[in-house]
């Protein structure tokens, strides 16, 4: 397989270059315009709905738990390693372009959540089934059934060989071994047993765990980063100025940093932002479809807060920590760069804090993607395929710590990109439906407000 690596790298570079980034950002811009800046105008309502949604309607889990499942998959190693990689290659300016990707991505995530609820259905067991494969087929028509199948097949491959398994398992076992000296096989066995116990229970089990871990790990990471930011509070204006200036002028070489162009900052910032919050990839709407709600637009609003929390808050804090501490132009890269930034305040326990954060982020990503892959398998092969899928997924977790074929990583990257294409086409094709549903919902909200007066 390694002999195909040069060809796979070329495909990966092309796919995640200008064409897909243009489609991703272009879709977000289109939806932002057609929805009249919904991610700005209605963000306060969206944030309020996280805990106040009525949860009355068909669905398997509450809107909050559906958001937690989606956040479980999106808040992962990309928030730590991905941001550091983007800043290392693209300079501080990459953070600005990450913000831009998230801003327009919020409109994309809103549309995904809305369509997921509008076109969801039930499986043979009476459980909710939804996501891009359903809104492609039911929204665009039966003639697009092959495109829906293509999306589902790509989602299964990503769950098995991409975001859902190997990168997360390796991140956990490597960081635990490095920080605490625990042998890889011990960590891997414990991780496999834990994943098996949770995922065999299905969505409700995953949602219950996610709803408990996600708030804790997000607050923990924010507090860790806030400590470093407060230590450098006087330098924040200069750091913001550097981020904005580097976004449009590039970054000169400094220390171990080779210098970057505006295009490098833009490409790395947007790509890493999308990898982190998954807006447009079509993963989050699979979880959104299971929410107990009668209003597709309401779940869309809740869904878009996922991108806000993931990138605007968590990724931004990582980026600011890297810039404020100067770790971005040191000799380290990836998780080691973030570790160096943490150690600037927390000294010897900085590495342990990073390991705990990384392990929690990676663990919840495995849970979220297990569910995404399961729903895709359900679409392709029916209920009978769910148990075999779960067993294969658990087996891949068990051997994931010992597989380091670079070609598998690159292939997973490619499949991840291919998963986004049919979803983005559907979002553009069904954007009129999204606008209509949004206007209908907002009019109901206005009428309700007038009646209360």
UniProtKB/TrEMBL annotation:
Its main location: membrane. It is found in: Cell membrane. The chain crosses the membrane at residues 20-43, 64-87, 93-111, 147-169, 189-206, 213-233, 239-262, 308-329, 349-371, 391-412, 424-442. GO terms for molecular function: amino acid:sodium symporter activity. It is a multi-pass membrane protein. Gene3D superfamilies: Amino acid/polyamine transporter I. This is Sodium:alanine symporter family protein. It comes from Selenomonas timonae.
């Amino acid at each position: 397989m390694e002999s195909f690596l040069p060809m796979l790298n070329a495909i990966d570079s092309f796919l995640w270059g200008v064409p897909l980034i243009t489609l991703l950002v272009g879709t977000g811009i289109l939806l932002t315009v057609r929805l009249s800046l919904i991610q700005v105008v209605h963000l306060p309502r969206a944030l309020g709905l996280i805990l106040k949604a009525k949860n009355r309607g068909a669905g398997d889990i509450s809107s909050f738990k559906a958001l937690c499942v989606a956040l479980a998959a999106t808040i992962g190693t990309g928030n730590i390693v991905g941001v550091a990689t983007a800043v290392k290659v693209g300079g501080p300016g990459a953070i600005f372009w990450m913000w831009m990707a998230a801003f327009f991505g919020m409109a994309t995530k809103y549309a995904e959540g809305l369509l997921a609820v509008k076109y969801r259905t039930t499986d043979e067991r009476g459980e909710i089934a939804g996501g891009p494969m359903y809104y492609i087929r039911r929204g665009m028509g039966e003639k697009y059934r092959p495109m829906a199948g293509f999306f589902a097949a790509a989602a299964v491959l990503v769950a098995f060989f991409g975001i859902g398994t190997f990168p997360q398992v390796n991140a956990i076992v490597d960081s635990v071994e490095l920080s605490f000296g625990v042998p890889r096989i011990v960590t891997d066995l414990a991780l496999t047993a834990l994943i098996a116990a949770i995922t065999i229970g299905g969505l409700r089990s995953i949602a219950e765990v996610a709803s408990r871990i996600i708030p804790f790990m997000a607050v923990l990471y924010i507090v860790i980063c806030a400590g470093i930011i407060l230590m450098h509070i006087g330098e924040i204006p200069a750091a913001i100025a550097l981020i904005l200036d580097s976004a449009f002028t590039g970054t000169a070489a400094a220390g171990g940093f080779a210098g970057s162009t505006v295009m490098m900052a833009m490409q790395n910032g947007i790509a890493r932002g999308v990898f982190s919050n998954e807006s447009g990839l079509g993963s989050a709407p699979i979880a959104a479809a299971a929410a107990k709600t009668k209003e597709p637009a309401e779940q869309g609003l809740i869904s878009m807060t996922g991108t806000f929390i993931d990138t605007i808050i968590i990724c931004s804090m990582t980026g600011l920590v890297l810039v404020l501490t100067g770790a971005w132009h040191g000799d380290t890269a990836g998780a080691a760069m973030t570790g160096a930034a943490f150690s600037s305040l927390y000294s010897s326990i900085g590495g342990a804090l990073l390991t705990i954060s990384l392990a929690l982020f990676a663990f919840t990503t495995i849970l979220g993607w297990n569910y995404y892959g399961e729903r895709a398998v359900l679409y392709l092969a029916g209920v009978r395929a769910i148990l075999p899928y779960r067993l294969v997924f658990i087996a891949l977790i068990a051997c994931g710590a010992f597989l380091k074929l670079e070609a598998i990583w690159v292939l997973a990257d490619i499949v991840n990109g291919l998963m986004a294409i049919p979803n983005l086409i559907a979002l553009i094709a069904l954007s009129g439906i999204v606008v209509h549903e949004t206007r209908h919902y907002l009019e109901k909200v206005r009428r309700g407000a007038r009646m209360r007066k």
